[in-house]
Amino acid sequence: MTHPATLTWSIVLSVLMVPVVLGAVRPNVVLIITDDQSPIIDRAPGHNDPSAFSPYGSDVYTPNIERMATEGIRFDRANVASTVCTASRYNFLTGRYASRSSAPHFLTLYPPGAMSRPDNMVELDPPDGPATLPQLLQASGYRTGFVGKSHVIRHDLHRNPQATWKAAGLRTYARDADPYDPAVGAALAHNHARWREWLRPYGFDFVDGVYPANLLELFMDANNQHHLEWTVSKARDFLEGSRGSKQPFFLYFATTIPHGPAPYRKQPSPYPFGLGGPIFPFGLDGDIHVTPEGITRDTFNFMPSRDEIKKSNAEAGFPEQLAYMTWLDAGIGAILQKLDDIGAGSNTLVILTSDHGSWRRGKATLYEGGMRIPLITRWPASQQAGRSFEGLVSNVDVAPTVLDLAGVEVAEGVVDGRSFRRVLEGSNLPFRDAVFAELGWARAVKTKRWKYIALRYPDPVQRQIDEGVMFEYAKTAPRQRPYYTLNSSLGFFAAEHNPHYFAPDQLFDLQADPRETRNVIAEHPAVAAQLQARLAGWLQMFPDRPFGEFSAIAHRSDVD
């Protein structure tokens, strides 16, 4: 198989074919990605997750998302291939596993021949390298748009702006700067314009409403607040640009909710890890006129006001701290309404999902709370309404599915995932018997019943472990083993909430133990051996990425 890292953009273009899909008009696609959101893994009493959507059993008021599930398909076993922000977004935007990244910073940290450690340093491949999903769609005639959270390029600018921004052409300001100051507003507008320019070469005709990463990476207390209306207004601007056009479109819309800072808090709280404290509310009580591109006088009347959202949430019988989910739902409703307004509602596939599970449930681990995500699709033209799909799906499958629907054929090796188009068109048959995942120094293979997780360290780190070295940054026992991830804060929370985190080999019976409380590897050695063989077979896709003894294990039979 051709390795994607060696497949240049020009070669990809040379093999593109764009037939009409089954003689019909190719569908538009809107991909909506929330941030840090789990479905409810089991519905046992006491296990409600207020950040989950109501179609998954959560007690929240999300009527527009309920409508999506009623008019579309709810996927009950959707997964991500990496359980942190940047690596997962790489999966969505390329259809490839994060260890494929050929971004210079990633290859500097983990050159070919070394074990990779996919984490929040994964960036998109260079624009002239392996093609992204939007590049392929753009080349096939789609109009493409990007709105919302990036976190997939220019990671060099996400720390210490005083040292890095000027050289990159960005303007700096004090952390406590007043956005109503004209000079500060001008700096925000200038920087936002630069981020728009940087994202366009990755396959986007339209870029607006950009968050470079999380809210903190704006380095301004006043902007450390979610601004859903601002991003939704940009998404609606993109959709308006397709009114009356026969050109199909693709919109990537990435919201910052419900990632921290907690959008449900009314009062400020200190940042973690000594980063200081904000002085503004984070969500519905924030200043609606403060945006990452400066002050706006827009009242965003295409959505209910924030007070109206609180009122509707209360009238539905839910506490005010859950109103942020109704807020998010209202933004999704405004996008759906715009699709109808421009006459595109019927033949637009809307995909609603998340980049990974909630940090409370398993973010930065390969447990179900991190891997499992909500996934709801709505495509009225397909006439598939009110269905649920129980088969396994991975987020690397989204890009090949969209390309399949768009009639775009690409060379072998451009994507790692598989198209689930047949599910969208009515099939309930499984199209995968296993999904694979990678995070830091851990790898996993999961079937419908079983999951095997392997933790292996690169040789230099393993030698330190064998010599009894204590890893000072590790705040969770045992300190003689480092976290999987380079991000020690994510590692801390992951290890703190998951007792099996440091076990080298882990096997879970997901049917009997969906919350993965018991490592049953000693009780099922034959199952473990089969899954280890499956994992070894998957790792053969990365011949320049060794992973302990797995590089030498022969591929054996499948398991149910």
Structural summary, described in words:
The chain is an alpha/beta fold. The protein is built from 16 helices and 15 strands. The protein has helices at 9-14, 63-70, 85-94, 104-109, 133-139, 161-168, 182-199, 228-240, 306-315, 323-341, 368-371, 398-405, 421-424, 459-466, 488-497, 525-539, and strands at residues 28-34, 73-79, 143-149, 206-211, 249-254, 290-291, 294-295, 348-354, 372-378, 387-389, 393-394, 435-439, 442-446, 450-455, 505-509. The strands form 3 sheets. Strands 1, 2, 3, 4, 5, 8, 9, 10 and 11 form a 9-stranded mixed sheet that branches. Helix 8 packs parallel to helix 10 and helix 9 crosses helix 10 (323-341). The two termini are 26 Å apart. The model is unreliable at 1-23, 271-276 and 554-560 (pLDDT under 50).
Relevant terms:
disordered N terminus, 15 strands, alpha/beta, globular, four-stranded antiparallel β-sheet, 14% strand, nine-stranded mixed β-sheet, 560 residues, 16 helices, 28% helix, disordered C terminus
The Cα radius of gyration reads 23 Å
Determine the fraction of residues in helical runs and give it as a percent range: 25-40%
- The chain-level structural class is alpha/beta
Number of strands: 15
Residue-averaged pLDDT: 89
Beta-sheet strand percentage? 5-15%
